[in-house]
Amino acid sequence: MIIVQPVPVTSPMVTASNVAITETLWTAGTYTLGQERYVGTRLYKVIVASTTANPTVGVTATPPSWQDIGAINRFKMFDQVVNTQTTRTGLIDVSILPGTIINALAMFDLNGVSTTITMTDPIEGVVFNETKSLQDNTIIIDWYSYFFESITTVSDVVFLGLPAYGGATTRIQVNAGAGTAAIGEVVIGKQRNLGVSNFGTSVSILDYSRKETDQFGNTVVETRPFSKRADFDVTVETGAVAAVQKALADIRTTPTVFIGDEDRAETIVYGFYRGFNIVISTPSISDCSIEVEGLI
Fold first, then answer.
1. What's 130's domain CATH number?
2. Whole-model pTM?
């Protein structure tokens, strides 16, 4: 069981990006209902007849004149919202300079053929380079499924054990070929091992879609996002119980990546734990359960 404590990615950390900013920058003037402008990395929309206010001021006014409608496309991959994606035709290629040591990177809600992570140190050059396929072949069990099953992809991946170079630039690439590449969220940070995840861990989703049936039996379905859920069954060393308890207490209000098994995407969840319980079972090992609720 590994957790990744995130390092927030700010605008100055993004040293290169091939995702063009197509949104319009706010400048002083008069704006009317429905117009959109961005300030920094956020996009705002006018919700009154007209306004001359700066969006960052108007959004907190009484009544508000602007509404924050989310990050601009380039920065959606860093906005702590999984289901808002940075998109680009063909390839997304972004470089970040964290300015601190990181040894783990996770990506969620991906769309593409493959993803590549490259770390380059200004002195030693390339210190890490790994490509992972986003094609999921687990349902290919015979020749019939090889030829006729629909192509499925992996949407959540992690790269663990990155070399600890504080001045290295991390380059993130998602290649979709002729399709649209998309990244829902990128999380960088430091990994910490809490214990060993066991079989018995359960995974599920919470669907926010609406399914309503009227008095005549007609059912209307409104598709909405869903979030991942996991109940981790973890074995920890009894001598480390206090440290595990403190580690979990420290992240109680911080969105964190929880990894049961890096090769099982279903056990990779980005969100908060709803609760945890540690039973000091024996002098050597203890049993821990962690209930995690993913972000949408």
1. 2.60.120.260
2. 0.92
